[in-house]
Amino acid sequence: xxxxxxxxxxxxQTTPGHITTTVTDIFSSNVPESKMRYIVKIYLMGDNSSARxxxxxxxxxxxxxxxxxPMIHVSSAExxxxxxxxxxNPILVLQGGSNLAGRVNAGTGISLAVIWWDDDR
Amino acid sequence: MEAGIRxxxxxxxxxxxLGALExxxxxxxxxxxxxxxxxxxxxxxxxENGNIxxxxxxxxxVEHTLRDPRNTDKDVLYLxxxxxxxxxxxxxxxxxxxxxxxxxxxxxxxxxxxxxxNFPNLxxxxxxxxxxxxxxxxxxxxxxxxxxxxxxxxxxxxxxGVEYYNCDTERSHQPVLxxxxxxxxxxxxxxxxxxxxxxxxxxxxxxxxxxxxxxGCGDIxxxxxxxxQNEWNVRPISLDEAAELR
Lengths: 121, 246
Fold this sequence. Notes:
The complex is a heterodimer of chains A (about 120) and B (about 250).
Chain A lengths: L3 H8 L1 E7 L4 E2 L11 E9 L6 E8 L5 E10 L4 E5 L8 E3 L4 E6 L5 E9 L3
Antiparallel strand pairs in A: 1-9, 2-8, 3-6, 3-7, 3-9, 4-5, 4-8
Chain B lengths: L17 E6 L2 E19 L15 E6 L1 E2 L2 E5 L14 E10 L3 E6 L43 E3 L6 E6 L9 E14 L4 H11 L6 E4 L1 E2 L2 E2 L3 H8 L6 H5 L3
Parallel strand pairs in B: 1-11
Antiparallel strand pairs in B: 1-2, 2-10, 3-9, 4-5, 6-8, 6-10, 7-9, 8-12, 12-13
């Protein structure tokens, strides 16, 4: 029988996104109610203009936003990574009905990529 | 492995093992004379024309029999005659493992008929809607070690059908199967023959160790039919009748 780790690796997915100076949802729809979503890693791409500060939020089921990871420094011409290389060690866990959101302090916005997996198929 | 579900390899019978095979009409009692382990791994799911099946996200693939990709006229899980070339009554016994984890497989036993694994009080399973009941997934019968979650006993001239549903919301997947079976060539005990009556009674009354198999899958029991009864020269009987034979 395959190990759980192998099953998780098969489930890994990458979602690109773009956040602006207002709080922006990253996933196009909330996590399905029957699932848990494990956020393993987030890549934040500098906007090649200036260093930026990013805040990451949890969007709760009631639609409100809770700051989870504040003040991430993103250099203008670099990729900033947060999270681990290990899919068993997520930095955030989203419950059904929630979403991940972000905001940048200035500029026209920055791009990001989220590595994640859902607990159910 | 979940409690109460065992790898199918642990349930394969050995030569000289005794058993009772349940059909709709009753039980047939046997001894395994010869067995052959048959495995088709990897078996890429194909359609009737031999094309690889690729199921789109949250989509369904219609029913197919398990054709041999090398010759699509042949069904892998099928016995064309009632007895083997060397004259033994025979059956197939085994299970199917599946990957990847996103594919739900629905069996139809026999081809075009009922889907096993439904709750008795529920409406029929709808594979086209991806109903979360009555399916086999890699969680319960993994590729590489199929389990008795959907233990199949296939008598001669019965086709098995399979349908697939891809649960993945973003990616297409190709189902890959592990067909792990044994073909048993058997001596059939005839309740109308004096010398067989005691062994039938011993099996039915559990006085000797014996396997109990159901022709079909789970709660779906297949009919034996007159043709097979004639070919195997036996009439199926109830367990009570069998236990009382002297």
